[in-house]
Amino acid sequence: MVRAVASPIVADNVGYIVIDDLSQDLRSDLHDAGVSDDDLRSIAGRDGVVRGAEELDNLFTRLREPTRALVRPGRQSLFDALRAHVERNRQAAMDRGGRRFSHDPVLMQVLEGHLSLGPQSPAASVFRVEQALADIGFLDPTAVDGDFDDLTMKAVERFQIEADVPVTSRIDAATLGALIGAAPPPGEKLVTRPEYDRMLATDRLEVTIALGAGDRGYTRAQAELAVIEGLLDRGFERVPPRDAARLRELGLDGVDPHVDVWTNGETTLHIVMPANDEPASGRAAARAAERSGAVLWTGRSFDLAEAHTRRTGLLGRRAPRPSSARPAYQLVCVSGCDASAGPVQDRLLGRAQIDTDLLATDRGAPESSRGHHALGFLDAVLARADTAVLRRALGESSATERGFLFNRSNATEAHGA
Amino acid sequence: MIAMRNDVGTALAVLADHRRPEAERARAATTLGEAGDAHAVLALAIEYGEAAGSLRRAVSYALGRLNGVEVLARQLAFADPRSRARAAEVLSLFNDERATRALTLGLTDADEDVRINSACALVEHGDPLALDELERRLETDPSRKVRAAAAQAVGAIGTVRARQVLERAARTEEDTFVVILIERTIQRRIDEGESEDFGC
User: Fold this and answer.
1) CB atoms A221 and B187 under 8 Å
2) ipTM greater than cut 0.85
3) Average pLDDT over residues B67-96
4) Residues A337, A348 contacting (CB under 8 angstroms)
5) Residue B37 to residue A366: CA distance in whole angstroms
6) What is the distance between the alpha carbons of residues B11 and B32, in angstroms, rounded to a whole number?
C-alpha cells in the first residue's frame, strides 16, 4: 500500500468541501485516484462536509494513487484542484458569516485554536456567536444577551450535532469554523428557519394536532367543526381510514385509530380529536400523538429504519437517534382544556429526551380558542414563521430539549372565537 | 338594593378571579346563590364547567338556588340571538332532561348560530330524547354547519337507530364538509369501542 502524501491544503476549520456540491469532473478525478463516493461520505460523516485538518487529511490518506493525483500531464493536479475548491469555499464563508466575527480578536483566537468560549467568556464575543446562532434558528432571539447561559449552551450543542463537529458545549475552533460556514452575512437572517428547512428538506412535513375537549362552556364539537372547516378552506382533503391504498401512497402503513389523516399533497396532518371522557381521552391523545408523531419522508422510497438512524440536517445528515422506536420530528399542537391537554403536554415534555421540535398548547388559557389555536399553529408552521411570529400567534415560548414550547395561557393577545 | 347589587358585583369579580384561593371563590359562589340574582347564572355556569372540589359544590348549590337550568332554558328561548347562542353553549354542561329539552327546542331556532350551538351542546348529552329533531336537522337544515353538528350529536347518542340515521345521511348528503363529519362520527364510535350500543 502506498502511503498518501500529506495534504497540501491549508485546513483552518473554515475551508471545506461539500460532497454534494463537488463538480462532476472533480468527482471523476477522485474516483480515478481511488476515492469512491462511499469513501467521501465516510470521511465527511453525518453532515456530508469534509472540514478541518483531520477530515481533509483523511481524504488524502484514501488516495490510493497519489502519483496520478499529483501529476496529470496538461492538467491541474488533483491536489491543486481540491485546494482551489477548498479555498473558494473558505473565502466565500469568510465573506458571509466570517464578517460577523473577523473584527473580534477573541473570536479570531478561538478560530486559531488558542482558546474557547463558555460561561464567563467576554460578553461581546458571546453576543456575536449568539446572534449568529439565532439568525440561523438555533437560539431563541430573546436569549441573545451576551451571557453564555444554559440556553446558549443547548443551542451550541444542537448546532454541534447538526454540523457534525465534536459536542463540547463550548465555542471552539471547529464549532466557530462551522458557524462561519453556516451563518449569513451580518444583519441577515436565513430566509427560512433551519428547523423548517430540515423538516421540509425532503418531501413531506407532518404536523400533529391534538384537539381536546373544551371547558368554560364551549364544546369539543364546536372546535371540531372549526378545525375541519378550516382544513377544507386551506385545501386539505381527508384520507378515509379504510383507504389503505391512499394511505400507503402517503407512506402510512397502519394508522392509529385515534388519528385522522389529512393531506394537501405536500403536507400530511395527523389530527387527534379525543372523545368526551376527558381523562381517558387525554391519555388516548397522548398515546396517539406519541405514536403518530411527525416523521419526515424521503419521497415514496422512504425507509422507516433509515429515517430513524439519520435525519436531514442543516449541513447534511443528522445524528443517529438513540431510540429507533420514536419518530425523528414532531410538530405538535395540543388544544383543549387542562384535563385533556394537560396529560398530553406532560407526557410529551416528560420524556427523557423530547423529540418534539415545536409544541404548542392552550393549556390554562383564560378563554377557549374553539379550534382557532390549532389552525393558527398550522398556519404558522406552514408559513415557516420565525419564533417571534409563532410567539405572537401561540403565546409565550420556552426552550425545550429540541425546540420550543408555546403556551397560549400566557399569550398577550386574545384569539377570536 | 344598591348594596345587594354591589355584593353581587364583588362576588362575581371574586368568582372569576382564578388567582384567588378556592375557598374564597367558593364563598363568592354561595353569596351569589343566596343573593337570588339571576344575572349571576351565566357566570356560575361557566365556573361549573371547570370547577372542582368545594368550589364545584358551592357553584352547584348556587345554581340550584337560582334555578340555573331553568334560567338558561328561558334565556335560550327568549333572549336576543347572541345570548341564546351562549345559553345553548352553557347548557351543554348540564346533562339533565330539562337542559336536553331546551336544547332540542334550540335546534329549531331561527338563528343559525343558536342551532349550531344547540346541536354541539347535545353532543355532550348523548340523550336519545333529542334524536328525532336531530334527524330532521341532519336531513333538512339549510345550514351545512347545523347538519354537521347534528351528525356529531346523533353519533353521541350511540343507539342502533342513531347509527341508521347517520348511515342514511351518509348516502344522501352531498356536502363534503358534512360527509366528513358523518364519516368521522361513525368511525370514532367504532374506534373508541363505543359500538356496543350501535351493535345491539
Assistant:
1) no
2) no
3) 86
4) no
5) 25
6) 7
